[in-house]
Structures are given as structure tokens and as C-alpha cells.
């Protein structure tokens, strides 16, 4: 299955979660073993020549394929979450949303100094969330080698916030 064939497994949901937004629903892709396996295979092909010790998944849809990528890479998996969802000593990173602010957290000792990290999320939109996640990984001592995504919403120009990193989207809209 090719990159563009996977697009038929991503459905547009107009006016969700609020009017004017077209949500990209990946549930059909996740429901299809064939499409899900093809997506993971293609995501892995993009990073096959990189040394990766850790895959970081961004809450929550980044966990879905991120754990599968980590399994196939023989790497550990680390979660980056919204506040109040991780135990222990945490590092925090606030970031700006279109309207307001939010925060991401990571367990302080989840990544050893110098570990090579692949950050995975389902979608690159405005770039704020993944930029904050990359800052968190670097704050705890990891080295971000690439950012990979199931899809990129190119019209939102998210790459501008993360131009210092290798960006590897599977599908572009």
C-alpha cells in the first residue's frame, strides 16, 4: 500500500470539535489491520537509517502508532502527556495554542542524556505541540533525531515552528 492509498482510511469530519474545523479521523485506518500495518511499515521506512533509542509519543493519538514503531525499532517508548496524568518527578513545558496556552509533561528520568529520540504524533498541524515536546525531550537530555507524523496539514504551516528538526510526515493534506 502506498502513501496516497492510506488517505482513503482518513475521514473528514466537518465542524468537529467546533464549527469551522475539519477533523481528520484516523479511526478507519486503525480499524484496518492492512492499513495500520502499511502505515507503520511506511513510517519505519522513513527512519530506517537513523539510530533511535527511544520513541516519544504525544498524547494521545501519538501513543497509538508510536508504541508499534518502538516495538519494531527495538526502542523504548516514552509518553508526553497533558498535566496531571503522569506520576513522579516531571518536567513541564508550556506552549501557546491558537487561543490560550497549554502544558506538556514528561517524567524527568524517562530519557537518558544523549539518547537518540524519534518523536511521533498522528498529525502535524500548527506545530505548537510537537515543538513543546521536542523542547521537553531536549530539556531532559535527549537528542531529537526526527519528528514523524501519520499526516501533515500543510496549509497550517506547522513546519515553521519546528524547522530545526527533520520532519517526516507520511501523508500530506
UniProtKB/TrEMBL annotation:
Please state what class of enzyme this protein is. transferase
User: Which GO CC terms are listed, alphabetically?
Assistant: cytoplasm
Q: What is its EC number?
A: 2.4.2.7
Q: Which organism is it from?
A: Nonlabens spongiae
Q: Which Gene3D superfamilies match?
A: 3.40.50.2020
**Reaction(s) this enzyme catalyzes, per UniProt:** AMP + diphosphate = 5-phospho-alpha-D-ribose 1-diphosphate + adenine
The protein's matches in InterPro entries, at most eight in alphabetical order, are given as: Ade_phspho_trans, PRTase-like, PRTase_dom, UPRTase/APRTase
Give the similarity note.
Belongs to the purine/pyrimidine phosphoribosyltransferase family.
| Pathway(s) it belongs to | Purine metabolism; AMP biosynthesis via salvage pathway; AMP from adenine: step 1/1
Name the record gives this protein: Adenine phosphoribosyltransferase
Keyword Transferase carried by entry: yes
